[in-house]
Amino acid sequence: MEIQARVGALPGVQSASLASYVPMGGFPSKAAVSIEGHPIPPGQQAPRVLFNCIDPPYFKTMRIALLLGRSFTDLDNESGPLVAIINQTMANRFWPREDPIGKRFNMKGGREPFVEVVGVTSNGKYQTIGEDAQPFFYVPLAQNFASKRALQIRTLIPPELLVAPVKELIALLAADLSIMDIETMKQSLEGALGFFAFRLAATLAAALGIMGLILAVVGVYGVVSFAASQRTRDIGIRMALGANSHDILNLVWLQGVRLVIAGVVIGIAVAWALTRAMTHLVAGISTSDPVTYITVAILLAGVALLACWIPARRAMKVDPMVALRNEKSVARVTGNPLKRRHDLILNFVETVKGYARHEGGTLEGLTQARALAVNAKTVAERTEAQNALTATMKVLFAVVEACPDLKANQNFMALQQNPSSLQGSSSSGCRPPQPRCIRRPPDSAQPLLLAG
Hints:
Elements: H1 2-8, E1 13-19, E2 29-32, E3 34-35, E4 48-54, H2 58-62, E5 66-69, E6 83-87, H3 88-94, E7 104-106, E8 115-121, E9 136-140, E10 150-155, H4 163-173, H5 185-189, H6 196-230, H7 232-240, H8 245-275, H9 290-315, H10 320-375, H11 379-394, H12 410-425
Parallel strand pairs: 4-9, 6-8
Antiparallel strand pairs: 1-10, 2-4, 3-7, 5-8, 6-9, 7-8
Helix pairs in contact: 1-4, 6-8, 6-9, 7-10, 8-9, 10-11, 10-12
């Protein structure tokens, strides 16, 4: 106690206190707590609650708010009644909807003596930054011996300046007392039980977030830029018809704005759902903190809108002549099916001519053979004419219909179907002029009769 009083009197020291444990500085003690008037049921164990042994200035030095009752005093010593100060979570768990001041519990699982509650403090972090609120209580050092003690000092000057004076004072007052470690509260919080794990996770999350932001920006830029390039012809025509550059900017930029707004809304909804399961990984802010959501949404939307503005700005500078040349190139592309149709029609005509020549030659030979047979006078002439007529008849293939039609041949059918299909595929482009319809002969037309 003398060390604590002498250190508190050093220049630059606001207050000093002693405790058996420093928050997030190790593993605090636990006690099996039994509430007076609520015996432990048979077969069950008393709940174990963390506690710390402190001196009266502890709450002032650590700035722990006292919600109800009083703090410890010098009268809370070994000759006084046993007292304790509990936190709010312990009060709510063991005495719900009751005033905990004056209630008693013991620290030995149901055996005497009982400890009286004289105060209630706010909740704190006792082992790790990310822990949930848990029951905790404090007892006076004067009533509970602790061989290991920690000296807490709140300073008015940089704490590093007091390291040497505090060491000299401890060596003067207790030369055989070993000092295990000297660190500031900031250094303690940066340890493994403090913010180290959170900072590591935050760094990894930030790296992944930056990568995601880059991918999102590149994706939005690519989509908007591609859409603008696909509308070059449309943009050129609009400008040729009198649209100004601001109209074109709004046309392209608003297309990207719709994508950004949809992405931000969906992203906020998904983030809100995921943070429900990340409560233990968030410290210092709420998982539903509106400032965080608004700030991140504005940042992402601003970067994405900038990515939309760049291709929109480039679309403003489209030359209408470029669009017209692009339209001509499109017309050339859509004209290829027409060229193929033209070539197929020529093949069709040449094939018809070939069939016509073949049929004409066959009919001419048949006519000549028949004339020879009619004009033959001798048996030898008749025999020769009959043989010629028979040979000619073998190569003749006549189809008797109401009207002779080229569709009777499969080759003509295939040739006629190809131009029709090409006409359908090219209907979205330049539609070729339709050929005039040829009237079929009337149904009363008599079939062609070949008599031998």
